[in-house]
Amino acid sequence: MLRTVRLYGSLARDFGPSFKLDVRSLAEACLALGSQIPGFRRAIEEGRFRVTCGASRGKGLRLGEDQITFGLPKGDLHIVPVASAAKSGGIGKIIVGTLIAAATWFVGGPMWLVGMGASLALTGVASLLTPKKKTEKERRSYMFDGGNNTSDQGGCVPVPIGRCMLTGITISAGVTTDYGNGLPTARI
Known about the structure:
By secondary structure, this protein is an alpha+beta fold. The chain contains five helices and seven strands; from the N terminus they run E-H-E-H-H-E-E-E-H-H-E-E. The strands form two sheets. It has a five-stranded mixed sheet with strand order 2-1-5-3-4. Strands 6-7 form a two-stranded antiparallel sheet.
């Protein structure tokens, strides 16, 4: 389907504001632009973006990370860069809170507004001092031998039909301690 891919901000400045492409998904659009425009792929990999499919960048279907290969409906594709500081907002809260408190203090406004500005500034300081959440690496279980025979909760269970060669999926497992001969023995 022929659609217009519109770029905004630094992307529009560096690579151009719009392109007409015959693409069905965001992944196809980025692949097409990345193969034709030098530097576009690196800019996409290093940046953060908000992507919308619709008539304007404010209205339409907002795409998440899990919808990159999603077949899109009719409409333009809007790729808008998002500032990296917009995620935490700590510096912005400090600046806005300080301005509110100082302006209210000098103008002689109500004290609750001074308190609100100071509270907003302290919230920004706290968000900057709070450590960021570290992503935890997947821990593998070596309790059972063989192929990958573990699955996450909610995963599908295969139903083999005919003759198949496959590994089993552990649905439930437990470890108990038995005192049969007076000494603890672990059973798996």
